[in-house]
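Review session, final week

We close the course with one last complete record, chosen because it touches almost every idea we covered. It is Arginine--tRNA ligase, a protein from Corallococcus carmarthensis with 573 residues. Go through it on your own first, then we will talk.
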Amino acid sequence: MSTSVYSRYRAAFAQALAGALGVPAADIEPQVKPAEPAHGDLSFATFPLAKAQKKAPPAIAAQLAQTLQVPGLEVKAVGPYVNARFLPLPFTQEVIDGVRRAGVAYGSDAEDGKGKTVVIDYSSPNIAKPIGFHHIRTTFLGHCIANLYRALGWRVEGVNYLGDWGKQFGLVAVGFKEFGDEARREDMAHLVEVYVKANKRAAEDPVFDEKAREFFRRMEANEPEAMKLWNQFRETSLKGFKRVYARMGIDFEHIEGESRYQGKMDAVIDQIAKKPGVKESQGAIIVDMPYADGEPPVLLKKNDGSTLYATRDLAAAEDRYARFNFDKSLYVVAQDQALHFRQVFRTLTEMGQPWADRCVHVPFGRIHGMSTRKGQVVELDQVLDEAKERVLQRVKENVAQGNLETTDADALSEQIGLGAIVFGDLKHNRASDYTFDWDEVTSLEGHTGPYLQYAHARSANVLRKGGGVPASYDPALLTLPEEQALVRELMRLPDTVKAAAEQYEPSLVARLLLDVAAAYSRYYTAGNKDRDKRILVEGNDAVRAARLALTDATRITLAAGLTLLGIPTPENM
C-alpha cells in the first residue's frame, strides 16, 4: 500500500515521539494533528502527559523538542505543543515528483482496497418518467463515490436500480390506451406525457385507478401481453436514460430494476417466515419482529397479494451478496428513506445474515429553489441545457472581449455547464440541504465548478506559454511563501480521497480543490505585483523551470480531483 507524503512524515513524527516517551507509536499517532500554519505542519499536545510526569505542559514540550530528530522535519516547542514543520527539501521535491509521476491518477492508491468489492446503488429513476432534478444528488454523489472507490483499488459494482415495477407502470399501460399515440410509442417524452395524464385521471377516477392496479397484478402474474407491453415501454425509457447519462459521462456496471426480482420474492418471504417470522396484519403479511411505538411494520405483501419496495429490496440485497460477495453495499438514497433502510437492514440482521452490517444507507439532503427560465425544473436534461445556454452567453462575451480563446464555444459551454451543475451539488456537505442559485453555480468566480475549470485551464495555458513541461528542475529554488503554501495544498489530495471514500463525502475533495485553486491564484497574482515572483520570470531559466514544474503539478492535481468529481477539464478558457 502506497503512503502519501503527509502520512509518511506524520508517521515518522509519531514514531519519534513514541520512542522518546516509551510508548507504542499506535498510541501517539491519533494525537498528532495539523498545526496552525504559522507554527508548523504537525502538532502534538502535551497536556495528557502533565499528570504522569508532574511537569507543566510547556516544560514537557520543550524537553521533547530538544530530544527529537526526524529527517525532513524541523521540530520546535510552541508553548505546550511540540510542532514539526516540513523542511523545504526533500519535501517540495517529494510532493511535486509524486504528483507528476502519478499524472491524472494522483490521489489514487490501487493497493488500498485490493481484493475488496463495493456495490453502489444510485440514480435509480422510474421508467416512463424523466430523470428529474430530484435525481441530481443521488446521481452525482453516487458517481463520485464510485470514482473514489475505484481510485482506491476497490472493485466497484455500480447498480442503477430502476423503478420498473409497481402500480405506476400500470398507470402508464392503461393510460397509453386512452391518451397514447401509437406512432410515438418509442418516444420517451410521450410516455411522460401519458403518465402525467394517467396519474391525474387516477386521482380523480377510482375506476381508472383500479384498472392500473389490475394491470400491475397481471404483470406480477407474468401475463404475456402485459409483460410484452411492459418490456416495450421499459426499453423506450432506457434509451432516453442512456442518452442523458452519456451526456454526463456516467456509466454503470449494471442497469437493472425491481423487475429482476419478480418471481423470487416468495422465496425471500419463506426465508423470513423461518426467522424472524411473519404474521398477518389486516390481510397483509408483515415481518414479525418488535417495533417502536408508532413505527410502521415492514410490509412484505399487501392484502391483494402484490409485493412492496421492502420485499424487493430484501430480495435485491440477498441477490447482490450472492453475485458479488461484497465487502460493502451502499445505497445512495435521500434522507427521506432512512426509516425504510433501517428496517430493511434490521430485517436482514434478524434473518441471521452475517453480512447485514455491510449494508449502508448513504443519505443526502434536499435541493431548494431550483428552477429554469421555463418554470419549475422537471428534467435533468433541461437543467443541463439551461446551464449550457447561460454559460454560452458568457463565453461569447469573453471571446468578443479578447479574454478567452476557443475554437468551439458550444462544446466548451457544454463542459463548463456540466461542471457548474455537478460542482454546485458536490461542494455541499452530503447531509445538508442547499438552495440552488443559477447565478452562483455558473459564475467564473467564487466556489464554483467554472472557477476550478478556469484554474485548470489557466495552469495549462501558463505551461503552453512557458514552452511546455520542463524536463528537469531544481526544487531548492521554490522558496517563496506562495510556493510552499501551494505545495502543501497539493500534498493533501491522496489523504483527502481516502477520507472522502470512508465518509462517503465528495465535498471533502471539492473543498480541497477550491483551496488548491485559491493557492495557485495567489501564487499567480503575486507576479503581478513583483516581477521577480512571476512564474514565467525573465532572465532566470532555472527558476522559471522550477515554477513551471510546480504549475504542472498544480494542473495535474486539479485534473485528478475534477475527474474524480465527474467534471470535465478543458485546457482553454
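Two points worth writing down before the exam:
The chain has a mean pLDDT of 94.
The domain at 5-86 is CATH 3.30.1360.70 (Gyrase A; domain 2).
Good luck, everyone.
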